[in-house]
Amino acid sequence: MTLRRVFKTAVVALSLGGFAACGGVVSSITGGVSEGLAKGIMNQQDTQLVAEGVPTYLLILDGFLESNPDNADVLLATAKLYSAYGGVFVTDERRSKAMLDKAKSYAMKSACLTDADLCALDTIPFPVFQERLQGLDEDTLPYVYGLATTWTGWIQKNSADWNAIADLAKVKALLAWAQDQDSGYDGGSIMMYRGALETILPPAMGGKPEEGKALFEQAIEASDGKNLMAKVLYAERYARLVFDRSLHDSLLQEVLAADVQADGLTLMNTLAQKQARELLVSADDYF
Asked: Which CATH architecture has domain 187-287?
């Protein structure tokens, strides 16, 4: 199994988190329409409609940045949307990679504009990186979290490059810091994202499946079981890793039996059910 394949489902979950946060930070430039649009996207079951409609929104945000290149909030919103759209809906690898490159660039610039300690995080040594995190103010949480999610999408697109894979340690540290500031941020999805990252690699390569298991369960509990992607990731990344067929099938059947309608989660849940069907079909070949 290639690292690119291993990343796939985790990045779907990480990327879609970007849609939910886009509205609030740019509502000031669209008279509040932006916030409603972001919510509408996340509550949409028609994935094709989302795929066809989001590019227009991206053009609007890019246009705003042409005249306001140092607006940290709009940079962050645009980074998240490019990461979500390019990582989930664009099938052309060249276009997808270009979008993820832009997403990372925007997220890095946004973070740097917010706090000097967040500048050049992708180039500094890890010990220096850790020292800088310790000095951050909690007000930087949205920018740290946004950078972590977009950075993960970029790593996925560059998963053939071991230098990119090495950045996972920094992404994990960003998410751990974010959880320390507010474990309930983004509906508690930080635990799901951390669980996905802890189970991307096997233990021999630094993975921590039992920590991932605990984080997935915390994420499911935090959403009252409504976040179906957390269960899909739990099945794919943990149950398959430890060859627990019973847990794997049970989680996926729960996903298929659930109602996808949940405020802020409908789009992600719709994609989660699609992933669940695919995983069940391939289960006999895997176990």
From this structure: Alpha Horseshoe (1.25)
